[in-house]
Amino acid sequence: MSERAKPILPGAAIGVLGSGQLGRMFAIAARQMGYRVHTFSPETDTPTGQVSDVETAASYADLDAVRKFAQGVQAVTFEFENVPSACVEAAAAFVPVRPGGAVLHITQNRLREKNFLASSGFPTTEFAAVRSVSDLPAATAQIGFPAIMKTASSGYDGKGQAKVTSLDDASHSFSGCGGQEMILERFVEFELEFSIVLARGVDGSFAHWGVIQNQHKHHILDLSLAPARMNAQATSRAVEVARAVAEKLELIGVLCIEFFLTKKGDILVNELAPRPHNSGHLTINASRTSQFEQQLRAVCGLPLGSTEFFSAAAMANLLGDLWCNGEPDWPAACVLPEVKLHLYGKIEPRPGRKMGHLTALAATADLAAQTVLLARDKLQAVR
Ligand code: AMP
Q1: Which is the most buried residue in 20, 54, 261, 331, by most CB within 10 A?
Q2: Considering just the CA atoms, what is the radius of gyration of the chain in Å?
Q3: What pLDDT digit, counting tens, does each position of 52-106 carry?
Q4: Is 271 in the pocket of ligand 1 (CB under 6 A)?
Q5: Which of 127, 148, 151, 194 to mutate to test the pocket of ligand 1 (most atoms within 8 A of CB)?
Q6: SS in 3 state form for 276-294?
Q7: Is the model's pTM score more than 0.90?
């Protein structure tokens, strides 16, 4: 067995690029299984750093710091995919980086991602590249209106996105984003949005948590429920696509695929994230293996864990807006026995900032959603 194919055993140190809540929940799962966690990001006292063994604060462009970091761990993973490829390459010279740089390269750029999906025959929204204003007449003629303009890179939670209904709108959006590369997508009248969070092991093994329904507010995920309210046919088609995407990417690690279910009942891939995802947070309390433990298992070459659910579940995000009247009423939410509170250790509750989440388990996904929303309302209770 080659050195890189051998499992990485408890006691080893795992490096995480990025230091947000995804890294924090990964670190908690990894430490539970006896691993050490080192985190790397430009900041200190971060959500991940607070629960890690070692917190390195350096720029992702500081390749000497990246090399030093990589030499102190047995494998590197990430919780934030906008890490420069030079940083990943510098780490990969010393230890396995999982998922690998090629997966990161594709998923860091919406155009590359959509080209990968379309050229591999996966169903996706119709799109066109916009690299200059002169591309817009042909792109808008091809895609039609309404459409969505998105920056090709560095966009998340709806940042760098605009719905456009005319060529003028599209031109404004393009110049408003500084003339950087963009993608024009057909606006999908969807029935619902859902995701599949999956893992693929070093040996090609595959695990997933089925379909999770997602509701966004102001482009930020607000509520997830599992299982999604979808029929068996659309569900099995989505799982088939998810598995094929993971195979095609030769993924080692966790991947989230966000989909639209159209009003006609078709599924379309919207976006890929090669890491645990906000919609998978409910797996911490609702499944035998959480998405974070699964990331650890995949990255370390351990057998994947069971993704069986204990029951239906729902998750509601807690954004910084919740603090507008002062500290939320935590005991009020904790009164409900089926609700679990997760907070990420962030000091400053800015509007739109993900500060934590609540998860509820119940006999049905709808009941779990009602419960988790009730708990969140209680948090907001005016004192
Ligand atoms: P994204 O950053 O691509 O995940 O987009 C954020 C959210 O914007 C999605 O979850 C959808 O609610 C909405 N959205 C993005 N692209 C489209 C589209 N082509 N048609 C309709 N809604 C979209």
Answers
A1: 261
A2: 21
A3: 999 999 999 999 999 999 999 999 999 988 899 899 999 999 999 999 999 999 9
A4: yes
A5: 148
A6: CCHHHCCHHHHECCCHHHH
A7: yes
